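Can anyone check this?
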Amino acid sequence: MNRVRQRRARRDRDPAELNITAFLNLMVILVPFLLITAVFSRMAILELQLPTASQQTEEPEEKLRLEVIVRKEGLIVADGQTRIADIKNTEDGYDYASLTELLEQIKASNQDVTEASVLLEPDTPYDVLVHVMDAVRATEQPDPNKAGETIQAELFPEIALGDAPGA
């Protein structure tokens, strides 16, 4: 009977308090650490125009179909059937400045064209893709209203991506 009373006495006592001090100390250290090490980046989103089934069945108009083909040895600018120019790599890599100059000349004679295709080899680095797209989309030109300042001039903002044809 004594044992039964002892068990009841244990149950009737107040429950033990949880000691969460160690957990709170961990949170005080962990939360600032996670906030400091978090990477805050700005994402830029570009809209790409992908062909739809209805666009493929329409009669194509006779206008420039600009293609920029990215190869390991350089860039090729074509009109869909013939090569317009080959831009060889420099010692530093791809020659984006020459590409922009060529595209400015092409845009001057084809003002109504806004589409271009960027065709890539399978192992093309993402950074190269971004630089080529930037060169195809726009260029910086001197601002006629403000001396010494530049403005963004549109070249071929509607970009489609694809695989480069075989060499």
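Reply from J.R.: I decoded it. The chain is about 35% helix and 25% strand.
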